[in-house]
From TrEMBL:
<keyword id="KW-0479">Metal-binding</keyword>
<dbReference type="Pfam" id="PF00480">
    <property type="entry name" value="ROK"/>
</dbReference>
<keyword id="KW-0862">Zinc</keyword>
<dbReference type="InterPro" id="IPR049874">
    <property type="entry name" value="ROK_cs"/>
</dbReference>
<protein>
    <recommendedName>
        <fullName>fructokinase</fullName>
        <ecNumber>2.7.1.4</ecNumber>
    </recommendedName>
</protein>
<dbReference type="InterPro" id="IPR051804">
    <property type="entry name" value="Carb_Metab_Reg_Kinase/Isom"/>
</dbReference>
<dbReference type="InterPro" id="IPR043129">
    <property type="entry name" value="ATPase_NBD"/>
</dbReference>
<dbReference type="InterPro" id="IPR000600">
    <property type="entry name" value="ROK"/>
</dbReference>
<keyword id="KW-0460">Magnesium</keyword>
């Protein structure tokens, strides 16, 4: 049963990688290191897993990685990185290096699908059947759960690369190397640095660029609600959580834009629908543990 056993999890992010060891749902060991080139990073993570496995056999391993990833086991390159803006990581054999020859069940998914699963089981998504977890930091990603299961299909959701309606008067061209002014290219950390003309952490709260960023995030929330009918949208990541005024602005704009059309959306309900992730910075690592538990107990999530 989930909650019983010895599980290892890897949250492989674009900036840092976290390996955790858990007894059931309780983290007992944690290690953090920078995400460098694929060979150095993946070998270091694998060495940690091998050391834990040698000490006491693991019941499961979960890998929650930045993407995009090939997640179809029937496709060539399963578990590998697809084309990604992160230099040298396109084509990286993430699952192959981390699991090759490892004698325990394992599962790989996106970091945001993993975080969504963790929030569903232990965090602010408890009681929901559908939710979307959105992280805004170095990049922007979204994990989507329907009936408690991460969404997969032709690939996996790439919410960060939606191109949405822009606020009137906003001339910022965006910073995504693939799509320019997709939502990631508008509000992720590096994009905000260009948009605000300074380190976002140093930008004053009254900088007009924050209003445009809030408008973009509200458009993203509207697209998620209209397409997935998610019961909750949970935000994580440094950008989303570092400015307390952002989510109230986003909520107000969502209601203004969609409150007359979506019957479940009102000034009162929106605070429950759009909120910070409940697990904070542990959403990603615990997502990896949720994947490890799923690998140990079920043939598929």
């Amino acid at each position: 049963m989930p909650g019983i056993g010895r599980f290892a999890g890897i949250e492989l992010g674009g900036t840092k990688a976290i390996t955790i060891l858990a007894e059931g749902d309780r983290i007992i060991e944690r290690h953090v290191e920078p995400t460098r080139d694929p060979g150095t990073t993946l070998t270091s993570l694998r060495n940690r897993i091998d050391a834990w496995q040698a000490r006491t056999p693991l019941d499961g391993l979960g890998i929650a990685s930045f993407g995009p990833l090939q997640l179809d086991p029937g496709k060539r390159g399963f578990g590998e990185m697809l084309a990604t803006p992160k230099p040298r990581w396109s084509g990286a054999k993430v699952a192959g290096i981390l699991t090759g020859g490892l004698d325990c069940p394992w599962r790989i998914d996106t970091d945001v699908n993993g975080a969504a699963l963790a929030e569903y089981r232990w965090g602010a998504g408890q009681g929901c059947t559908s939710l979307c977890y959105v992280t805004i930091g170095t990049g922007l990603g979204g994990g989507l759960l329907i009936e408690g299961r991460p969404v997969h299909g032709a690939m996996h959701p790439e919410i960060g690369h939606l191109r949405l309606r822009r606020a009137e008067g906003d001339a910022f061209q965006g910073a995504c190397p693939f799509h320019g002014d997709c939502i990631e290219g508008l509000v992720c950390g590096p994009a905000l640095a260009k948009r605000l003309g300074m380190d976002p952490a140093q930008a004053p709260d009254d900088h007009p660029g924050w209003r445009h960023a809030a408008s973009d995030i509200a458009e993203l929330c509207g697209a998620i609600l209209l397409t997935s009918s998610a019961q909750r949208i949970l935000f994580g990541g440094s950008v989303a959580t570092s400015r307390p005024f952002l989510l109230p602005w986003v909520r107000a704009q969502i209601v203004e834009q969609l409150g007359s059309y979506l019957p479940f959306l009102s000034p009162d309900s929106v605070e429950h629908i759009v909120q910070p992730a409940g697990l904070g910075t542990d959403a990603g690592p615990m997502g990896a543990i949720a994947l490890a538990q799923a690998a140990a107990t079920t043939p598929s999530i």
